[in-house]
Design brief:
It comes from Actinomadura algeriensis. By secondary structure, the chain is α/β, with parallel strands linked by helices. Helix content is 37%, strand content 15%. It is built from 12 helices and 10 strands. Helix 5 runs parallel beside helix 6 and helix 10 runs parallel beside helix 11.
């Protein structure tokens, strides 16, 4: 499994391809991995209008991003790993989606290529009025769920929402009526000092303790282990990430453990590079955690930088392989 590949200057990794198969190769370490090329959805390639609304994420998730702006950027307090402003400027997607646009897009994709999608993902930037932004996101999730039900694909295609929690925690109960919904309020880091440093907008305007309180409400609303929260492996010590993941799991929250991937559009840029040993420690710890709790991975096997699907299938059991020369 290749989690991610970033090349920094004169690197020893190369991408090689013949007629049938591409591979990532490191001749110094004597290792290589196949790279699967996933075709885009035909209906997205064939419709410019549909392609401005949705995209295929990781080969199996139909993704909607709305709004494509976040007030943290306007305030200069954006999450330091976030590349939203740069990527939004470089892509032709619509800035804000309506429930009708999401409903119609899900219906079009499931009608044209029903076997390609196993989940619908809704995510977006944060609005200054968090209650309004939350309710708009709930409306998009409801629209996606209605389209899935109309296609007769309940149980085959799940709806996933990541958003900021509202200030009025009573609004979290509005998620009750969305069948099988997975929802995440993201902490980003468990260590309080790291949270404050890498997510200054969330720290200043909401606070880590308040997000944890919102997650408790979320478990009540959507059910144990269908509530989620991201912790980014590589931005704090492995022990801190694992401590946070264990605490979340004990609450009934399924941790989403994302490997940090650098992006030139973010404030951190290319300055942080998690080591193999750090990530192997996190992966091994997650495997043990998944054996103790009925954690439900947010991503169901699609290409992404999270480790949870593999951990849930025991793929990190045992000692991690030693790659001579890998740090």
């Amino acid at each position: 499994m290749t989690v991610a590949v970033n090349v920094y200057g004169d690197d020893t990794w190369t991408l090689q391809a013949d007629d049938d198969q591409a591979r990532v190769v490191n001749s110094r370490l004597g290792v290589s991995w196949p790279v699967e090329a996933v075709d885009d959805l035909e209906c997205l390639r064939g419709s410019a209008a549909l392609g401005r609304v949705a995209n295929l994420y990781g080969g199996s998730a139909l993704s909607f991003f709305s709004p494509r702006a976040c007030y943290f950027f306007a305030d200069g307090t954006q999450c330091r790993f976030c590349s939203l402003a740069g990527t939004a400027a470089d892509t032709p997607f619509a800035n804000r989606l309506s429930a009708a646009q999401v409903r119609d897009a899900v219906a079009a994709v499931l009608g044209a290529e029903p076997g390609r999608i196993n989940q619908v993902m809704i995510v977006g930037g944060n609005e200054r009025n968090l209650d309004t932004g939350f309710r708009r996101h709930v409306g998009l999730a409801v629209a996606a769920s209605e389209a899935v039900a109309a296609a007769g694909m309940d149980g085959q295609v799940s709806v996933h929402l990541v958003t900021m929690p509202p200030r009025d925690l009573g609004a979290v109960r509005e998620l009750d009526g969305v069948p099988g919904l997975h929802t995440g309020f993201n902490l980003e880091a468990w260590d309080p000092a790291t949270f404050e440093r890498i997510a200054p907008g969330k720290s200043n305007d909401y606070g880590q303790a308040a997000i944890l309180a919102a997650l408790e409400r979320l478990v009540d609303a959507v059910g144990a282990y269908r509530a989620h929260s991201i912790l980014i492996a590589g931005l704090e010590p492995p022990a801190s990430t694992l401590s946070g993941a264990a605490s979340l799991a004990a609450m009934g929250v399924s941790p989403i453990t994302n490997v940090f991937h650098s992006d030139v559009h973010s404030q951190i840029g290319l300055s942080v590079r998690p080591s193999y040993r750090e990530l192997a420690e996190v992966a091994s710890g997650l495997s043990e955690l998944h054996a103790r709790h009925p954690i439900r991975p947010y991503w169901k096997g699609c290409g992404r930088n999270a480790l949870d699907f593999e951990a849930s299938h025991g793929m990190f059991d045992g000692a991690p392989p030693a790659l001579d020369g890998a740090s």
